[in-house]
What does this fold into?
Amino acid sequence: MTVAPPRQTLADGLEISRILTGLWQVADMEKDGTTLDPNQGADHLQAYLNAGFSTFDMADHYGSAEIIAGRLLSRHAGAGGPQIFTKWCPEPGPMTADVVRAGVQERLDRLGTDCIDLLQFHWWSFEHPAWLDALHEMARLKEEGLIKALGVTNFDAAHLRLALADGIPLVTNQVSFSMIDRRALGPLSQVYADKGVKLLAYGTLCGGFLSDRWLGKPEPAEISDWSKMKYKRFIDAAGGWGGYQAILQAASAIARKHGVSVANVATRWVLDQPAVAGTIVGARLGESEHIADNARLFSFALDEEDRTQLEEAFAQTAPVPGDCGDEYRRPPFLTASGDLSHHLSEMPRAHDATPASHRSDATRVLTGSDWEEIAGYCRAHRIGNRILVSGTTAVAGAARAVAPDDAAAQTTYILDKILAALSALGASAADVVRTRIFITDETDVFDISRAHGRVFSDIKPANTLVVVAGLIGDHRVEIEAEALLSDTPTDMA
It folds into this structure.
């Protein structure tokens, strides 16, 4: 028996299929330089739409996926048509109103529409603070009617909370979530419980590893498929092939019990998580389309015995380290290409170091704050192998306090600013030997401490925390830091 996928309301006027069709494989199909015929591609998407799978997910870098989806959109004026979700993934840099509008307009033009159903934003490095500027500009374009709803992709819980606390009207966060990668059950699900932001889950089948065809198979010596290269890294991070096979065996037993596939069980388990609005299942248009198999997802339900069996299998694996999205920003880099440190090092920095005039061996970082000129100070100063970071508050734009009602969110923003200053001077969080935290309300101490621990739990610098009578403006917390380099960096450009 097959059942049409149920619907989920994400925002006013936006109701989606809980199984989304992902078009990331369009880029892989076009990697030889041959572009798919957009009309034939739209025909393939129409088959999904006819079966009730009306929601399609893509991005600016998924080859011609936006153009193909736009061709489908052009066939359906008014109600009853598809919902098109895309992503904007700019390189870090100044996010002025003109830059953001141009990025959004390109999505509109490629889709051939005057309003994007859901525009999702990705940012490579939170040390560059312009991500918050971009989201505020996108929110303004939403008010203009160019965007129906806003989401983000690969945001960790701390930065999702920060965006929400600063007033960004986000409805979704798209992240990796599977029976292997269960990170989204942690802090992100708590943000859902607190704020209601839903998750869109990708990687639920781990590039095909969570399917019947891999049950009992030996660990592959070589993998050439980019998707499997990526998700094999997740399997390794979760403890290796043995634990993965234990999950596969449990899922296979459950699948036989219900007369469905292992892929159905894997996807249904993710869909049953309260924070999840929908899962994204990829399609190779004209080659590998799983409409019939996807349609069986809602013909059965996992019972308590099934969930217990899966939990016992999960216990044989290790938690994937970090939070969702960390795989793009810090080790272990769990991406198809592996280590992204070189790629990240080439990203534009938020700040650059400049020589200080009063000592030949000193450098400093200026962030453009009005107060740096008024009071005559810099954000950070390096003399030899010692770096001092001045008291830092959560300020964006023209001296606007970020997230004035959320001390934890302010702490996250402050620590990003401190890390950006350290990076400009050739240092990192691992070099920090001391921090000092000043807070205005002692009831914030645990939220601030947890936000501090997210960055420094493994490093453990010495710390002083002081409750003060008050900070200027809407600041609930201020932090200064000191770092010590074992060897003086030779290149800070």
